[in-house]
Amino acid sequence: MRLPVWLLSLLALVLQEAGPASLPKERRRGEERGHGESHAVAQPHAGSYLGSLDDYGEVIDLSNYEELADYGDQLAEVKETSLVPPTRISPTQSTVAPRTPLSNPAMTKPTLPGPLGSPTSLDLPTCLVCVCLGSSVYCDDIDLQNIPPLPRMTTYLYARFNRISRIRTADFQGLTKLKRIDLSSNFISSIDNDALHLLPALQDLILPENQLVALPMLPSGIKFLDVRLNRLRSSGIQPEAFRALEKLQFLYLADNLLDSIPWPLPLSLRSLHLQNNMIETLPRDAFCDPGEHRHIRRQLEDIRLDGNPINLSLFPSAYFCLPRLPVGRFS
Length: 331
Ligand SMILES: *[C@@H]1O[C@H](CO)[C@@H](O)[C@H](O)[C@H]1NC(C)=O
Fold this sequence. Notes:
Elements: H1 5-18, H2 25-32, H3 36-39, H4 48-54, H5 56-59, H6 67-78, H7 91-96, H8 126-129, E1 131-133, E2 136-138, E3 156-158, E4 166-167, E5 180-182, E6 190-191, E7 204-206, E8 224-226, E9 250-252, E10 271-273, E11 302-304
Parallel strand pairs: 2-3, 3-5, 4-6, 5-7, 7-8, 8-9, 9-10, 10-11
Antiparallel strand pairs: 1-2
2-acetamido-2-deoxy-beta-D-glucopyranose binds next to loops.
């Protein structure tokens, strides 16, 4: 069942009243779509789904109410961004009218008056289209084609199962609190190179099941990067892209088209998933510094190279510093 947008917004208000006992709908949605399974791999980090539960204390902080006021500044910007097909916005239309292409100018006049003032045309604030709970914004599965304008204090953004195809430089500009971006299962094929790397608080970048062939410059505080199930090629990873990411612990690049191991890997790394790629060979210094034989990389306990056309027995000198051998074919 799909709930109309106005109902979701109402629900958000009710949830805020109800306090921490209620769960955001996104957890249920994630499980229904069978996406939880792949995230189970991310357990050491407690994954994004579990994470959202942990974050709940923070989320429910009602002292963030002034965020609504922030919207005053942003209303003008909303005009430039198409949020959802207008057929979804009016509860009466959404059940009756067939889907109309976004470009149809005749349909850009929803009838719902905005709560923040005059009835507007398509420029509904994001928190009517999405569910805003404290500093979290939930926009799952509402046919978004772009990143919507976000409240300035947004900390967690969930916009999974949409039709977003590109991330632009302006999309996240000035969002200094943003810690997690989860855009799983969209159609993202490009991210402007400077769209993310200046976000000072960003820790989790979650982009599985998209169509990326390349990664943009990454922010230096990132801890968790999940780009599984894309079309990443080694040429789409900038040289030494991960070297300076001294907080990076989880790097999930499984199910892409990589033909080499990214190098160098930061010492902070705990988990490197490269299964189901096209890696055929392993340089001696892929994980360990050949000139530093006493050095042990204690953190890096979880390397997956299964599903690659490589015989790991052929590279015995590549593993001396690892606490555990990589998972993969050794015969
Ligand atoms: C993998 O390498 C080992 C060690 O050289 C060798 O004994 C084994 O036959 C190789 N396996 C394949 C399938 O080539």
